[in-house]
Design brief:
Order of helices and strands: HHHHHHHHHH
Strand content: under 5%
Structural class: mainly alpha
Number of domains: 1
Distance between the termini: 25 Å
Radius of gyration: 18 Å
Number of strands: 0
C-alpha cells in the first residue's frame, strides 16, 4: 500500500506542474525560449532512454518469464506499439487547433483581448485536450512508480517539465479572454489533475486483474506511450521554442542523466 501511495503522489506532482506553466504566464512578460527548448529536449531524452533501455527490457523480462521466449517477445513488441496507437488515436480525436502539442508563447499582449469569446473557447478546449492527453500519461507515470520507484523519479521530472508549456497553452488564451489571472490559473491547474485521476482510475480498473503478464503488457505499452510523446510532442515543441541544436543538446543531456541515474541504482 505504501508503494501505491508513493506512486500516486509522484503522479500528482507531475500533473500539477501544469500549474507552473500558468504561473509563468501570470508573473512574467517574456518566455525564456532557449531554456524551454533545452528543457523540452532534456525531457524527451529522459523519456526515450528510460523507455527503450529500462522499461521495455523489464516488460520483456516479465513476459518472457511467464509466457516463454517467443510469445513473450511478441507480446512485448505488440504492447509497445499498442501504447503508441492509443496515444496516436487520442491525438487524432483532438482537433489540431486545440491539441496540447500546439504550445503558445507568453508574449501575446496584456489584458483582455478584443476576440475574447473565441480565445476563451480555445483555452477551454485546450484544457480539455490536455486533460484527455494527460490521462494515459498519468497511468504511465503511476505504473512506472509502482514497478520501480528508482526509475520513476526521472520520469516524473521529465513529464513535469513537459507539462509546464501545456500550462502556458491553457493560460495564455484564457487570460487574454478574461483578463483574470485567477481564472487562467484555475483552469490550467485543473487540466493537470487529469494525470493523478488517470492513475487512480487505471489502477482501480486493472487492480483485480493484476498479475505479471498484465503488468508486463502495461509496462511495454507505457514505453510506447512515452516514446510517442517524446517524438511527436516534445522534440517538435523544443524546436519551436529555440534553435534546432539546442533541443538536440537537451535530448542528449537527458539521455546521459537518465543513464547515469540508472547506473547509480545497480
Amino acid at each position: 500500500m505504501e508503494h501505491v501511495f508513493l506512486a500516486f503522489m509522484l503522479t500528482l506532482i507531475a500533473g500539477l506542474n501544469t500549474g507552473i506553466g500558468s504561473l509563468i504566464v501570470l508573473f512574467t512578460k517574456n518566455t525564456n525560449q532557449k531554456f524551454l527548448s533545452v528543457s523540452l529536449g532534456f525531457s524527451a531524452g529522459v523519456m526515450i532512454y528510460v523507455s527503450m533501455i529500462e522499461i521495455f527490457s523489464k516488460a520483456k523480462e516479465s513476459l518472457v518469464a511467464e509466457m516463454g521466449t517467443t510469445a513473450g517477445n511478441w507480446i512485448t513488441v505488440i504492447a509497445f506499439f499498442g501504447g503508441m496507437l492509443v496515444i496516436a488515436v487520442i491525438d487524432k480525436i483532438i482537433p489540431s487547433e486545440n491539441n496540447p502539442h500546439e504550445f503558445k508563447s507568453v508574449e501575446t499582449g496584456d489584458g483582455q483581448h478584443p476576440h475574447a469569446s473565441k480565445l476563451m473557447r480555445t483555452g477551454i478546449f485546450t484544457a480539455l485536450a490536455i486533460a484527455i492527453h494527460n490521462f494515459p500519461e498519468g497511468l504511465a507515470t503511476f505504473v512506472s512508480a509502482l514497478q520501480d520507484p528508482s526509475i520513476a523519479i526521472p520520469i516524473v521530472v521529465a513529464i513535469a517539465i513537459h507539462n509546464i508549456p501545456e500550462g502556458i497553452a491553457v493560460s495564455v488564451p484564457i487570460y487574454q479572454a478574461t483578463g483574470s489571472k485567477t481564472k487562467a490559473f484555475r483552469v490550467s491547474f485543473l487540466s493537470g489533475l487529469a494525470e493523478p485521476v488517470g492513475a487512480l482510475v487505471g489502477w482501480l480498473v486493472l487492480m483485480p486483474f493484476m498479475n505479471d503478464i498484465v503488468f508486463g503488457v502495461i509496462f511495454a505499452a507505457v514505453a510506447g506511450i512515452m516514446v510517442f510523446i517524446s517524438l511527436d510532442e516534445l522534440l517538435p515543441a523544443a524546436r519551436e521554442y529555440g534553435q534546432h541544436h539546442l533541443s538536440i543538446y537537451g535530448l542528449i543531456s537527458g539521455m546521459i542523466v537518465m543513464a547515469v541515474s540508472l547506473l547509480l541504482f545497480l
